[in-house]
Design goal:
The chain is an alpha+beta fold and 385 residues long. The chain has 8 helices and 21 strands. A hairpin with a 2-residue loop joins strand 9 and strand 10 (229-234). It is elongated.
Amino acid sequence: MLDVTEYGIEIQNLVKVFPLKPGGQDGVYALDGVDLRVNPRELFVILGPSGCGKSTLLRCVAGLEEPEHGEISLGRRTVYSATTGESVSAQHRQVGMVFQNFALYPHMNVAQNVGFGLRTRRVANPELGQRVAEALRLVEMEEFADRRPAHLSGGQQQRVALARAIAGNPRILLFDEPLSNLDPLLRKTVRADLKQLITRLGITSLFVTHDQEEAMIMGDRLAVMHKGRVEQIGTPDEVYRRPQTIFVAAFTGRPVTNLIEGVVDEYRGERLLVPIESRAETLRVPPELLEFRGQRITVHVRPEEVRLSDGEEPNSTPLEIENVLPEGGQCFVHFHLGGPYKPLVVRADPTLVKKEEIGRRRTVTLDQGTVYSPETGRLIGEFGR
């Protein structure tokens, strides 16, 4: 196999525009000045909603789309540069790609599917057989070489697609939402196996997904994209614990998160987050938020960062329970905030609150969180950390 330890990905100021009409001047910016560096041997995840540009970015790296501006380097080689006019074709970039639907040929067995790309490149039979056998060994599918795709599970088909990608000795692996067609239970099992496989192979990998849970599990680092731009880059823990924008905070909520806009004030010794809507509840907040007194802010707290309290703590607020949603070993409690606000969601031990309490008031405490400017959407502070 190719020594891939030195190969990373460098993307600078990448711009890709899709014209609204053929030959027209106006267009949609699928990528709008993307800068990204993927370290050698790293499993890097691109996370974002549909239409944010993540798949377009992957296709530009693969050479399947031509950007309008910027530069892409794979390892020490520049494969695209708008400045110099250099553009290396897809077949010469030594990139392996695993697609959403696996794209396996039903009339071919596993070994034939894995070796298909090698045959089209006229690789000699002895070498072809060796490379197919090695690829199947790496994904632990040797015993299935003679089976047809229809006789494989979804997870096994995914391994065959990966074997086909690595049989070409790629220096970069690209994954375009490869698990999205699997059922939820199988998806959870396969993602763990896939991460283990990619880590063992040690090939620099770029993995695209819209599933934030999948991104947190799979990625050594990840980038969150929105409207063609990169909003934040960091480890899964950094992105989840300290989101840099309101969009990142909301998009990485599991299953949802809490964003509450208001003005901080102090009244009779109590620190309050006064809502922008008079019909909404006023919340007591920690002392760190007095730094923003008189300023309109958006407070963000994850459901696990809000605590059911006993009512005697200085930062606790009594709120009406709107709904109780048990999920096995945990429970999500929705508290009524009123006005334009969505319910305040608290993750709690299911033994601490019951459905019979819907309509009653319980006290909650905001233990920790982050603070944003509503005007810019950017992080301006944090509390409880």
